[in-house]
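Supplementary notes for students who missed Thursday's class. We covered one full example, reproduced here. Read the sequence, then the structure, then the short commentary at the end.
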Amino acid sequence: MQLTDPYPATNQQELSQIESYFNIKLPIAYKEFLLRNNGGSPAFHDYKIGGEYFDDVGSFFGIRNRDATYDLKTENIEMKNRIPHHYFCIGVSFGGNIICLSLKEKEYGFVYRWDHEIENYDGDPWEDNMLAIAASLPDFLNMLYLEPNQHN
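Structure (token representation):
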């Protein structure tokens, strides 16, 4: 995976600190991704659903060890009351949709897209704006391509 503007490398200890802070167990494929890449903007950022352009990934969050935009911890704290608790935010589209990993037992590691335009502003987070887009992070990364005349 080619990323532009990657963050400094992370390590297993920092990953363990994230898991401990949020009391979660991250999928192995995602931890391997962070150890290799630690966030940044993918060169191939568009993806299709049903054979048609659907959305993009503007940036994958990384462990930046400070309160900052695109910091994994910061972004998940900020989204805590907006996204159902069994999802973990890993990236954002150019338009503000969030890419998440499911931590639910039956869909553990599935990649979801949270649509900010149909968020439940009047109550608890809901599943109505969550869409499964891949069965795993590697499957999702393999879906990424560059749509001609998009976001260059």
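Commentary. Residues 50 and 133 are 10 Å apart (CA to CA). The chain has one domain: 3-143. If anything here is unclear, bring it to office hours.
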